[in-house]
């Protein structure tokens, strides 16, 4: 009885409750949560700071680029000001010239410092270094850009009319037509046209259908670009005025000859002999000696008459021919016109208001080194049936208002001109054209890099 009673009144306590037993666990979990939250907050703040720093880092580059764009605009309005409307002192690079960079609301978002290096002798490139710093940033970014005004000499071929390159032709350097290009050859540079579409003439491989501004079986087609802005040949009239003034100032200025024109002989010792042309015949020209000049200080010769030219030369030179009476003057290349060396240290430019011609009495094998530009005519061998030559080699560039050609064919048979033609683009002309050679537009960026 006693044992049964004890079992009946026994209180079983398997999980006794003790006050505060869960507190350490709660504290531990809370501590872990707070530590995790703090870590997340620290990471978030760090990410925000990094994002802000990166944003300012990117903005500093944009500010530097704005500095380059500003000075490109500045040169477009005054292309000989290398000191930002101040007096140049000391040695280049000139600067720093400091400007605030503002947003469209007038708020200052950064600052750039400019350092400007004028073109070196024989070049046409202004070097600008811009150091940009975004507002609130301690990190700057530096950009170096080569700025220049592209000239007609930047093209391997340029024309105001349509043109056609055959399947056997390989072109090096940019090509542009203000109308359209039928291109069946191969290229390593841009082939561009101002027209979106055009109807090629039969003489340029047309089929009475509309075609893209640049079309044909050649390529690579990835180099075809159209439509692009037109190159304005009329602007050359202003350049001829400038060449006239430059020749009067520090060059050689030849007025009307009151005969057929002038023969300019470029001598190997870099002097220039000038003759009066009294008569042109089918076999050559009659001349009388006038004077031998030293190389012009600014490399410019201007003639208010027709010009015949040949020789070998080792300096930079531009020869311009404008009016002959009431007619556009011509330049005729009567024999080899050669650079002493083809390493970018010699540049010759011929700028004619009328044609640039190779006459029928030129050698059967002819080489022409230089940038050839006709404002209102052709660059060509004028058709003269029966006058068939062997080879012509061009090292430089050709810009012709009307079509250019060195050979005339009947089917596949050459009936006049040169049987074999080779043209090599002088890549040095892109950044360093001949002195005062006509430009095609405003300043642009030739090269750009971050320092």
Could you describe the 3D structure shown?
The protein is an alpha/beta fold and 451 residues long. It has 3 domains: 54-148; 149-230, no CATH class; 232-442, no CATH class. It is 17% helix and 40% strand. The protein is built from 3 helices and 33 strands. It has helices at 2-9, 23-77, 236-250, and strands at 94-102, 108-117, 125-134, 140-148, 157-159, 163-165, 170-171, 175-177, 181-183, 186-187, 191-193, 197-198, 211-212, 214-215, 224-225, 252-254, 261-266, 272-281, 284-293, 300-303, 307-313, 317-321, 323-324, 327-328, 331-339, 348-352, 356-357, 365-374, 379-380, 388-400, 407-410, 413-425, 444-450. Strands 5, 8, 11, 15, 16, 20, 22, 26, 28, 30, 31 and 32 form a 12-stranded mixed beta sheet that branches. Strands 19-18-17-21-25-27-29 form a 7-stranded mixed beta sheet, with no helix packed on it. A 5-stranded antiparallel beta sheet has the order 1-2-3-4-33. A hairpin with a 2-residue loop joins strand 31 (407-410) and strand 32 (413-425). The chain is elongated and about 120 Å long.
């Amino acid at each position: 009885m006693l044992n049964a009673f004890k079992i009946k009144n026994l209180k079983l306590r398997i999980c006794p409750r003790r006050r505060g037993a869960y507190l350490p666990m709660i504290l531990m979990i809370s501590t872990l949560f707070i530590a995790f939250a703090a870590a997340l907050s620290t990471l978030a703040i760090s990410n925000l700071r990094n994002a802000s720093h990166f944003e300012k880092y990117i903005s500093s580059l944009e500010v530097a680029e704005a500095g380059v764009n500003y000075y490109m605009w500045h040169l477009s309005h005054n292309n000989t000001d290398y000191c930002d409307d101040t007096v140049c002192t000391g040695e280049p690079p000139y600067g720093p010239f400091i400007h605030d960079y503002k947003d469209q609301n007038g708020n200052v978002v950064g600052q750039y410092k400019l350092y400007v290096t004028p073109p070196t002798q024989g070049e046409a490139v202004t070097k600008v270094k811009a150091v940009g710093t975004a507002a609130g940033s301690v990190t700057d970014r530096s950009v170096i850009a080569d700025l220049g005004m592209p000239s007609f000499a930047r093209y391997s071929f340029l024309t105001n009319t349509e043109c056609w390159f055959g399947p056997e032709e390989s072109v090096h350097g940019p090509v542009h037509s203000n109308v359209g290009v039928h291109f069946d050859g191969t290229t390593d540079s841009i082939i561009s046209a101002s027209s979106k579409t055009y109807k090629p003439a039969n003489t340029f491989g047309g089929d009475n259908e509309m075609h893209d501004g640049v079309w044909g079986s050649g390529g690579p087609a990835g180099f075809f670009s159209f439509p692009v802005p037109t190159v304005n040949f009329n602007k050359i009239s202003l350049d001829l005025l400038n060449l006239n003034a430059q020749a009067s100032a520090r060059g050689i200025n030849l007025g009307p000859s009151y005969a057929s024109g002038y023969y300019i002989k470029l001598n190997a010792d870099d002097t220039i002999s000038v003759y009066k042309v009294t008569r042109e015949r089918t076999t050559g020209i009659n001349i009388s000696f006038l004077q031998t000049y030293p190389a012009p200080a600014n490399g410019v010769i201007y003639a208010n008459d027709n010009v015949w030219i040949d020789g070998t030369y080792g300096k930079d030179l531009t020869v311009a021919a404008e009016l002959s009476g009431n007619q556009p003057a011509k330049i005729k290349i009567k024999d080899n016109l050669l650079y002493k060396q083809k390493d970018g240290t010699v540049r010759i430019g011929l700028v004619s208001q009328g044609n640039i011609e190779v006459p029928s009495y030129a050698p059967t094998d002819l080489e022409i080194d230089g940038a050839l530009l006709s404002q209102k005519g052709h660059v060509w061998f004028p058709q003269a049936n029966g006058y068939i030559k062997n080879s012509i080699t061009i090292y430089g560039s050709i810009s012709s208002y009307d079509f250019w050609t060195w050979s005339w064919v009947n089917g596949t048979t050459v009936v006049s001109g040169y049987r074999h033609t080779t043209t090599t683009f002088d890549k040095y002309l892109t950044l360093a054209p001949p002195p005062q050679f006509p430009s095609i537009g405003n300043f642009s960026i030739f090269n750009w890099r971050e320092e």
